[in-house]
Amino acid sequence: MNSQGINHYLEAAKRSADWHKSHINQMKKCRFDTIAVHGVYSMQEALDFNQGSIIEPIYMSTSQCYRDSDEMEAALGYQIPTWCYSRIANPTIYYLEGVLALLETYGSDVEASCIATSSGMSAIQTAVDPFLLPDPKEPSKPVNFVATTKIYGGTFQQFAVRKNQERLIEWRKVVNSNDLSEWEKLIDENTRFLYGEMPSNPGQAFFDLKKVIELGHKHGIPVIIDSTVATPALMRPLAMGADIVVQSVSKTLMTSGFGIAGAVIARKNLVSGIDNPEMKADFCMYMKTLPNRDNGPNLSPMHAIMALNDIRTLRARIDIQSRSTMTVAKFLSKHKNVEKVEYLGLESHPLHGVASEYLWLVDSEHDEQYGKPVNRYGHLMSFNVKGGAEAAREVFDSLQRIWRATDLGRIKSVATIPAISTHSQQGEEGRKLADIPPNLIRLCVGSEHPDDIIADLDQALSVLDGKKVISTSPEYSAGGASSATLRR
Ligand SMILES: *Cc1c(COP(=O)(O)O)cnc(C)c1O
Fold first, then answer.
1. In this predicted structure, what is the pLDDT of residue 472?
2. Which of 185, 265, 364, 485 is the most buried (most CB within 10 A)?
3. How confident is the model over 218-246, as a mean pLDDT?
4. 480 Cβ partners below 8 Å, 6+ apart?
């Protein structure tokens, strides 16, 4: 046997880690778009390991093989960077994690890492569960967390049913999240984290994040933010002091809609009263190598590369979609069949002021077109149709170009009625807490020309005037027999 010993691999790993670190430090000096395009994949890596492939390779392989038992021992002991088995790590997923960690900390000196997950929901579970374990010294002590009620419907269920009902972990509810005193009065020595979603889906709740972070840290409690709707192109909570960001990568980040994915991005050395130094030092690495290894909510490399590919154009896309959404929101505000329009970008929105302090198009000051910081408010808006639930359904059913789907952040415009879709499970009372009336239509404006979106909305709203509408031909169905028979 010709073993070179485990040290040989440890030294090689150190050289490789040093090189990676210096490469990442180089990337950190680049602008947002450059990081989004290149991420952590380098020419050197392409030439040395990937036959010069300019696009990140997709490692569709369950596992990695080793040169000998020494390398295997070092790898499975987590002593050298490795991806031994794709449930734990995979090079393609690493490229996605690398770029998200850089984008979420862009413009700051915060050090963060990322773990990709199979969905946004598993990202939320990954982010919150380690904080909800019983205290081993006093296992009977109650555990609670403080979270806003205006959150994604799935998050509402995870908190209300999976944590509160099933595990008796108390969810202390912040109803008006922009009132700091609400957060403050709910915190006690058993509070494990503060959680908020901003802007929230679909209610566009927004709060003064820096004050909430200050409050959490004053009590030694971590702050977790679902930043799916904003994306790092508009807001980067970690750079403001938050401890953990969760992303439903399925949405704006992977705008082409090829599948479901999630990510947790956490600062190194986060704040928490929990006695677990390893977790606090590098939360995502800890989750990756231990709890998620055992629970298995891993992402497929195929979806990682699809997300990575869409992220390259994130900033320009968010800019266009934000501008179109503003145009659409202004149009709807003046429409006689619309009762109310909610868009953080409208000055009439009660949270417009606070949102304007946080939502900035990244690098607009370095953009030839703008040359100064520019507010952008994203692609998510909602409107209430005059005439109640029935009228809202009629308008909704008349849409011809905007897709009826419970989706968001797509390159294509999508609309839903939250009361009968995303927020149907949580009942009347839950919807009241989340502020979801039955005549509310959530609209996510895509990258089409806004004139065409407006035309579609206009013709759909006109059904309430008793005007005749042109309907899509019932004979036409690209989906074949099954969808043709489903057609009314
Ligand atoms: C969709 C969504 C989630 C859940 O993400 P999935 O990828 O669908 O599991 C979480 N938070 C927000 C704000 C969302 O819009």
1. 45
2. 265
3. 98
4. none
Q: How far apart are CA 45 and CA 232, in angstroms?
A: 26
Give the chain's domains with CATH numbers.
88-310 (3.40.640.10), 314-464 (3.90.1150.10)
Cβ-count burial 378-415 (b if 16+ within 10 Å, e if not): bbbbbbbbbeeeebbbbbbebbebbeeebbbbbbbbbb
155 lines ligand 1 (CB under 6 A): yes
Question: Which of 152, 224, 444 to mutate to test ligand 1, by most ligand atoms within 8 A of the CB atom?
Answer: 152
What gap in Å lies between CA 87 and CA 424, rounded to an integer? 33
Alpha helices in 334-470 (DSSP H): 352-358, 388-397, 427-434, 450-461
* Strand 112-117 to 144-148 pairing: unpaired
So what's the pLDDT on residue 227? 98
pLDDT at 3: 60
Ligand 1, from 117, 228, 258: best to mutate by most atoms within 8 Å of Cβ?
228
Find, among 354, 328, 361, the residue nearest to 342 by Cα. 328
How many angstroms separate the alpha carbon of residue 121 from the centre of ligand 1? 6
Does residue 235 line the site of ligand 1, with CB under 6 A?
no
pTM score over 0.85: yes
Least confident of 50-64, 173-187, 413-427: 413-427
- The rounded distance, in Å, linking the Cα atoms of 96 and 41 is 10
Q: What is the pLDDT at residue 450?
A: 98
- Edge-first strand order for the sheet with 338-342 is 338-342, 380-385, 440-444, 414-416, 403-404
Structure-block tokens of residue 370: 């703008």
Residue 5: its pLDDT value, please? 87
Please report the atom of ligand 1 found closest to the CA of residue 250.
7
Distance of CA 34 to the CA centre of its chain: 21
Percentage, residues of the chain above pLDDT 70: 95
379 CA to centre of ligand 1 in angstroms: 15
- Identify which of 330, 376, 359 has the alpha carbon closest to the alpha carbon of residue 236: 359
